[in-house]
Amino acid sequence: MVATAVGIVVSSSAMVSLGQGFGIAGPGFLIPMVIAMVLNLFVAFSFAELASIIPRAGGINHYTLPTMGPFIGMVSVLSGYVLVNMFAGSAEAHIAGTVIHGIFAPDVSPLVISAIFLIILSIINIRGIEFYSWSQMILTGGMIVSLVIIGIIGLTGTGSGEPLKTSIDFNSMGWGVVGLFALAFWLFVGIEFVCPMAEEVKKPKLYIPLSMILGLLIILVVDLIFGNAAIKYVPLNILAGSESPHVKAATAILGKTGQIWIGIVTVFATGSTINTLICSIPRMLYSMAQKGQMPQIFGKLNRWGSPWAGIVFLSSLFLVFLIGISGSASITTFILAGAFCWMITYIVAHLNVIIMRVKYPNAARTFKSPLGLTFQIIGIFGIIYMMFNIFPDPAVKQQIYMYAVIFLLITVVYSAIWVKFAMKKKLFETTPIEELLKEGSDSSEGYITLAENKNKTDVQG
After folding, report:
1. φ, ψ for residue 58 (rounded to 5)?
2. Could you name the domain of life of the organism this protein comes from (predicted)?
3. Best label site of 17, 179, 181, 234, fewest CB within 10 Å?
4. pTM for the full predicted model
């Protein structure tokens, strides 16, 4: 669970954001980093409380059914996870192909490498949660340990490179450093991807909150080590303007060895991110199909207890979008537009906690967000602030908003039509929480959890 929490967040694009953030603000980037980590900690608190009440693979969708109904739940999943990760997952696969091509296999097309990479990860996930867990621990462990070692070598000055002679002010930007808040937020976003595995992990009501909190702390420490090492060896303006600042930093610290090493780390980061996407999102679609919110094919499980249709569907989307990714200057705009939708999903999570406290005050909770609803209210206002300050360039910001509106319109129209005509329900018709909890323990209703299916398969085997 910790490997999932860390692996989805520390992606290749996040390492670029880290390097650019330290390049723009120097050591002062610590300020927006800590604030962003705290805001994501509030998100973790909300998701942990919701998962402790409704430990289902549907994640945010199932948390929203008893509070705001199926329409809001579908929009949250489709806009906040499926659409944004069409672009993010494809971009990550493209990065892996480019890095492997540039450092290890110059004679092989990056597109072919990326496609093979995606197919291997898809097969791992189709084979079951055990294969996923081992691969995720190897990818995330190798990535985190490597970043820490390279960072410590840089901080101690024991690498083959020559540290810079100039001194750097802690925060030369002053209050302007707050403008990097949204950039820092990206270093921690996605920690809630552990929730869709609630039906398979042991003791989910304990390990879900624990893994998210530990994941955030690990990410903060590792990013601070590597980021401060980077600015010790690479001029700030070069880091700020680079498309691969982490590669420049590792190369400056360890020379050619650092370049090869960080290339491997980049592949591990991309692998752990895509691996988690292919694992978690199909489980959301699986539970939605069980509730009639998606085509029934997504509710089918294979002999290893994996939602194979969702895995094949998502991997196919990655492959399709991967073909058009190369050379696309607008991919960052697309990803940030998806991020805007992701932020809306986080607001929905906070609202779910608030409504649950009012509507179901006596519902069993093994984890409860501290200090009443303080963190949810602060979290909502903090996210709204980021949505209004998602990018410093006004022209790019306008494009981000335009694409975000398009994404939302697509999911709103699809969800409204599906709920009204396929499910034949009112858009905001809520499901009693007792019904959701009963379904998880009584498969006679037609709802079979991933864990129950896995147990049946083991017995038959």
Report:
1. -70, -15
2. Bacteria
3. 179
4. 0.86
Helix and strand counts by DSSP (H, E) for the chain: 18, 0
Q: Which tens digit of pLDDT belongs to each residue from 257-299?
A: 998 999 899 889 989 999 999 999 999 899 899 889 999 999 9
* Position 441 pLDDT exceeds 80: no
Angle, helices 70-77/394-417, rounded to nearest 10 degrees: 140
Task: Please spell the DSSP secondary structure of 25-57, one letter per residue.
Answer: HGGGGHHHHHHHHHHHHHHHHHHHHHHHH---T
Q: At a CB cut-off of 8 Å and minimum separation 6, what does 116 contact?
A: none
Percent of the chain past pLDDT 70, that is, above it, reads 93
Cα distance between residue 135 and residue 10, in whole Å: 16
Two tokens at 397? 């910001």
Distance of CA 323 to the CA centre of its chain: 22
Which amino acid is residue 1, in one-letter code? M
Query: Do residues 169 and 419 make contact, with C-beta atoms less than 8 angstroms apart?
Result: no
**CB 75 within 8 Å of CB 408:** yes
Give the model's pLDDT for residue 174: 79
**Domain boundaries defined on the chain:** 2-455
User: Residue length, the chain?
Assistant: 461
pLDDT band at 330 (very low <50, low <70, confident <90, very high): low
Residue 327 has pLDDT above 60, yes or no: no
Q: What pLDDT is stored for residue 134 in this prediction? A: 92
Cβ(44)–Cβ(212) below 8 Å: yes
Quick one: pLDDT band at residue 178, thresholds 50, 70, 90? Answer: confident
Q: What is the pLDDT of residue 448?
A: 45
Residue with structure tokens 């005509």? Answer: 421
Q: What does residue 409 show for φ and ψ, rounded to 5 degrees?
A: -60, -40
CA distance 445 to 441: 9
Whole-number percent of the chain with pLDDT over 90: 46
Q: Distance between CA atoms of 9 and 33, rounded to whole angstroms?
A: 14
Q: Using CA atoms, how far apart are residues 200 and 96, in angstroms rounded to an integer?
A: 29
The domain made up of 2-455 has a fold known as Amino acid/polyamine transporter I (1.20.1740)
Instruction: Tell me which DSSP letter residue 418 carries.
Output: I
